[in-house]
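Take a look at the protein record below with the fold in mind.
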Amino acid sequence: MLEQRYKWKNKQLRNHVSVLDGNLAPTLLLKNARYLNHAFRKWMKAHIWIFHDRIVYVGDQLPANMDGCEIMDCEGYLLVPGYIEPHAHPFQLYNPHSFASYASQFGTTTLINDNMVIALQLDKKRAFSFINELQSIPSSMYWWCRFDAQTEIHNEEMIFSSSNIKSWLEHDAVLQGGELTCWPKLLAGDDLILHWIQETKRMRKKIEGHFPGASEKTLAKLMLLGADCDHEAMTGKDVYNRLMQGYTVSLRYSSIRPDLPILLEEMHEIGINHYDQLIFTTDGSTPAFYEQGMIDHMIRIAIEKGVPIIDAYNMGTNNVARHYNIEHLHGNIATGRIANINFLSDETNPTPVSVLAKGKWVKKDGAPLDIYGSWPMSEDGLKPLQIDWQLEYDDLQYSMPFGINMENTVILKPYSISIDVSGDQLSTLHDECFFMLVDKHGKWRLNTLLKGFATHLDGFASSFSNTGDFILIGKNKHDMLNAFYRMKEIGGGITVSEKGRIVQEIPLKIMGVMSDENVESVIEKEKVLRHYLSERGYKHADPIYSLLFLSSTHLPYVRVTQQGIYDVMNKTILFPTIMR
């Protein structure tokens, strides 16, 4: 599908005007609607005319022509704009299509998505074909442009070349550069990253930061270099420092950082009671976290914590649209906007009873309407893995003097190995496991011990990782091999072998990193796996994020990467990968 340069073609725009002239009927009329008007910052009453995916009129008049028009009397409802998730990572076992469908049931009808997985897994042509294909679903899908892989990979200069970055930034669906996990390199003088930031700003697009723990002076420097927003505030003082330096601050409530309640409490304690520069994000949470909702749940928390109701809704709608310069399309109910509208039973309950996305009902009277369909398997490389190589017992040889200690869900430190690793089985009296990172093409491997992941886990294999390379963990080498071959058989996924028998699996049939099932199904599978791992000694917050961040070099202290065990603080390879 070719990229459409303008949202609506000239003929469509003429048709929109013809509805006002009475020559065409609206496709949907929302009568007697009490809705949130952002211009006046109050609830107002009007009739809302919709023609296909666009609001063509909001006011006191009724259409002269209503032939074939669907009419809904909105008495008893409150209408607010569709919610916007500005920082989605739509590849956390679910896929962008299924995630958009699920999010719409909670009123989040616009997603601004990380492009990392498709940038790493697909060439540019296929990646653009994929995101263009997603423009046809009811949700509004936008994207970021990453500037680095967030890990040490072999071909980074090819994937993140200037020509690729420029092409991504020029795409109409891309709204921002970042997130800037590479900011230490930027501050150290990397002019290529600075050039890409300059290009982003020249195109009137935003730069999203990733600045955990940044000092006031560091935040000021990064603002001078082009950053616009940051989602890494962990305290009320962090929010204050970012607002002082001119940032839009994205308040986070995610599976590994459920910070929003304490952030709001601390903000109010230090006198922050103006909300125009604040927005919400769930920051790519793992599936089960979303059972409680999405942006709607964050709005609910904000209201409970004393944020004025209209401000709470603005933080999930209008503030986001204004930040990204898409107010002409999103964030409010007004003439010309895309018809993303949530119907509420009460102003203090942001979870909608009914939802319109691009003028189509995706939820009505509390019931989901299946108009997204199933995953559109295409020829764009978004298929099950085909692993055409063998993993052998001889690959599971361990002689490294130090291993990786998992301090919590995402923080890794080196430690000295003191146990005997020459056999096939490790004791269950400690929490050390065999660990292997192996190239998805079978060219290299990295073997060490992982401490702190489990005590009684026989064999575990995962194609879900930051780079799509394969992770093997376990106490028993034969079960690790068995889990790997089951993962291979099902075309990618997460598998567990216990005493020679497969006991857990989550098939990830889209490139080995995403499920083709709906989010509800993935949630149930994730909960079962999480419970199983907990029984086997996993004691941290989120095993899915543990897998994802094993190679993520924006976190301290050591990481396992395609180039080897990497010392993040000193930017050196401590132990290289071994060619097979």
In short: The chain has a mean pLDDT of 96.
